[in-house]
Amino acid sequence: MPSNTSSGSSAPSLQDTHQSSVALIARQAIVNAQQAVIGYELFNRSRTGPTHTAATDVALVFTALSHAGTEELVGKKLIFVNCTHESLTGGHLELVDPEKVVLEIPPLGHVATEEVTTRLPILMALRERGFHLAFNHTVLQSTYASWLPLADYIKLDLSALAPDQLAVLISYANRHSEADLIAEKVETAQQYDMASSKGIQMFQGYWFARPSVVQAKLVTPSQASILELINLVRKQASTDAIEDVLKKDAGLAFNLMRLINSSGFGLTREITSFRQAVMLMGLKKLFRWAALLLTTSRTGGPPSSVGQTAVVRGRLMELLALESQPQEEADEAFVVGIFSLLDAMLGMPMPAALELLSVPDAVSAALLRREGYLGNLLTLAEACESSDDDAFNRAAGTVHLSSQQINGAHLQALAWADHIDG
To answer: Which of 33, 215, 315, 397 has the largest count of CB atoms under 10 Å?
Structure first.
């Protein structure tokens, strides 16, 4: 198989991509009495300021959902996320499975008396949607009496509470709420023994695990593609038109497939085509996702050359497949083409990159080993990018297509990819 970086090739080196970025997320385990991990609290380590805001809340959840590293951030565990009251009404919460997420609700400070009643309907609505709510020990104060029945978890800070205070709060919480109690900032065996002896069953702190920082790798689409997607969704455009935009930006395509197949999204079936993803996600969630993607995307610039090459490959392979195969096979051919440079976009080996996505076996075999009809098509697409005539002729022969058919399809693919609005 010819190299796709040979003389005359349009595929660039890794250093040319500029399409992936890294965000830092810390996670700290929350364990039960048997010291089994039941969830992770996530912290945004990429923010520049000392405090978190609605914007950093959104960025944290979105990054966790879009994370493209070889290691899952949370797997099947619960995600505990610190929130601001402003972020509780954010559209990013539409994109997660509520059963997976615990929202940590902060106290209101000196405005508590006036604001508790005002905020109550928002918290009730989140709970009705299936989100778990966690509060710190201030929720046990009389000011927050209307919030207490909503508490799934109450966190008790052992660095701030004396043992006698702790005993009083535990007794009150057990009498007046159904919440599970979490002792946090447990730093010594003595603190653990003391909290455990008082009946607490869940723990968080350095005694069990320090926060570990995960480099969350992200693939960033072009802002032009995101804006076009937003405009189409606002106009309630056809599935065909929306699918077309997704197929013209490799970063956009990867992000959508990554999100919709992530455990946090909560689907019970795997999605393997862009059309399926669009139809299952729906316009409302698609709009929210695109808007959030826009706020976290890099500014300006056309798609990277790697992404552009992947888009051309996908379209070329789709057109060539349609010469002899049904539409379903052509859809798979496009997926093979657009993800054929995923290793370059993510800076990781292809086997690891494919573990982040759900793809059919035939697609995986083509990408990893150039096997089957789809593998032969990919070899041909790569040969089209090189100046190796022998490789081109061999690849063309395996799929029984003429030079005229292939060159015509290649020109169509180049034109299609160049007209992002077309």
So the answer is: 315
What is the helix (H) or strand (E) element at residue 103, kind and residue range?
strand 101-105
- Residue carrying the six token digits 């695990």: 209
Q: What's at 26, amino acid-wise? A: A
Contacts of 363 (CB under 8 A, 6+ apart): 272, 332, 335, 336, 339, 374
pLDDT of residue 77: 81
Domains of the chain from N-terminus onward? 23-215 (3.20.20.450), 220-418 (1.10.3210.10)
Q: Quick one: pLDDT at residue 50?
A: 54
Token pair recorded at residue 379? 């070899």
3-class SS of residue 37: strand
CA 335 to chain centre: 19
Full DSSP string of 62-100: HHHHH--SSS-SSTTSEEEEE--TGGGG-GGGGGS-GGG
- Please tell me what DSSP assigns to residue 340: T
CB atoms within 10 A of CB 84: 17
Query: How many CA atoms, within 13 angstroms, populate the side-chain half-sphere of residue 297?
Result: 22
Question: So what's the pLDDT on residue 302?
Answer: 41
Supply the pLDDT for residue 368.
Answer: 95
- Pairing assessment for the beta strands 212-219 and 20-32 based on DSSP bridges: antiparallel
Q: How many CB atoms lie within 10 A of CB 349?
A: 12
**How far, in Å, CA of 380 to CA of 399, rounded?**
8
Residue 352: its pLDDT value, please? 84
CA–CA separation, 336 and 340 (whole Å): 6
The rounded distance, in Å, linking the Cα atoms of 303 and 249 is 7
Token pair 């593998």 is found at 375
Q: pLDDT tens, 359-396?
A: 788 999 999 999 999 999 999 999 988 878 898 999 99
